[in-house]
Specification:
Blueprint lengths: L12 E4 L4 E4 L8 E5 L2 H5 L1 H13 L9
Antiparallel strand pairs: 1-2, 1-3
Length: about 70
């Protein structure tokens, strides 16, 4: 079974911060997009994922600098 990264028909999806919308591979410039994501659904949840990761990092003792 081929690796998904080697699949020439694999679609990639992005979340555009300018338009607050999911876009296919060819969309707005990279500086304003999050991704790639393997599905439209995952791209649509990009901001939630960012928020979740930020909360995890903020409470991670390994990254908590107490001055």
């Amino acid at each position: 079974m081929p690796d998904i990264e080697d699949d020439p028909f694999r679609e990639e999806w992005y979340y555009c911060l300018d338009h607050q919308a999911v876009e296919p591979e060819y969309g707005c410039r990279a500086e304003v997009r999050l991704g790639p994501y393997p599905s439209e659904e995952e791209a649509a949840a990009a901001l939630e994922k960012v928020d979740q990761r930020n909360r995890e990092w903020e409470t991670d003792p390994a990254w908590n600098d107490e001055d």
